[in-house]
Fold each of these.
Amino acid sequence: QSALTQPRSVSGSPGQSVTISCTGTSSDVGGYKFVSWYQQRPGKVPKLMIYDVSKRPSGVPDRFYGSKSGNTASLTISGLQAEDEADYYCSSYAGSYSILFGGGTKLTVL
Amino acid sequence: EVQLLESGGGLVQPGGSLRLSCVASGFTFTNYAMSWVRQAPGEGLEWVSAITSSGGNTYYGNSVKGRFVISRDNSKNTLYLRMDGLTVDDTAVYHCVRDPEGDAWFDPWGQGTLVTVSS
């Protein structure tokens, strides 16, 4: 099982929208609704931002939106703010209780 | 407040062993599946192992299968990870995480404990 594929970096200006992709296979992302996204600010532990493809935990702004099409999941952040600058990781259930993470995407707010 | 507090990390030689612990508080530990997730220095996240709420079923990532053993003591609200045959590739911060619905998403994450494998 290989890690899920994410772009190494994305960037956007305050107020803009950015989308981070997470590509897997039909055995993981494409096969289950269990895709999640985590935000990790420098020196901090990961924080759950999206689960079950598109659900937001309490306290996560609705600027964060998750979706999936085929074997690719996406995290869209609208109305970018400086505080959104962080590393973002996707994760997916991959069957037989195994879990894959993406390699991570560094979001820079210009 | 839900809290997960790991301990047991440290410096160990290649081939050595270590046992990590994670004490949970602020929630009914016996109701939740738990996992360990690690992060090598400067690298991404890697799921290591999971255990069901009762402890009756355990699961492992390919890179640790046969070397690591996950367990829990629900009477002590504690999760464990026994690690044998450690290699330099096991060097990482190990996070204890809760799997609220058994759907393979994790919240919250403990601060982690650093395991360094080096001669």
Amino acid sequence: QKEVEQNSGPLSVPEGAIASLNCTYSDRGSQSFFWYRQYSGKSPELIMSIYSNGDKEDGRFTAQLNKASQYVSLLIRDSQPSDSATYLCAGLYSGGGADGLTFGKGTHLIIQP
Amino acid sequence: DAEITQSPRHKITETGRQVTLACHQTWNHNNMFWYRQDLGHGLRLIHYSYGVQDTNKGEVSDGYSVSRSNTEDLPLTLESAASSQTSVYFCASSDLVGTGELFFGEGSRLTVL
């Protein structure tokens, strides 16, 4: 069974610090991973995608993928109060239906001013 | 601007009634999805469609149905609403299968009394 696991939090980080969000997955067949951000009462929106081992940087966000350890992470540098949200990790499985996406339950991040 | 809209945004109904949630997208995407989101469960896939006249069951399809008569719309019907179907429902669409990039509607909060 394909599972994506996240710590539900809340994860509390002071403003300006680095927020580190982690995700593990059970199926080595996963090809790619995605991070969605969801503000309270709003819909999820895609913020990062990563397709190969290593790091991918986009502004203040860095996604990291380690397929050997089945581990994905999202780093947010210079955290801002506007980063407070729930972050959903999703894995894409080749050959899977419905776009092949399996979502984790999300980590609630709180940036403290 | 292209968008995806859901209606109604909020609905209260009684057990046993039939309910239909509408989803309309102007992205001209072939792929459309319905998810429900509950505390402790994250996003769970209900039904999905890869094109007109195509529908598929997801992880939690019991008690729900969809139909796809055109590209723009994928209505979700609860045949006989149950209290266990109280949830927030998200419709999403995507252009290419397997990209992991979903565009979500604003969500519909359904309460079944």
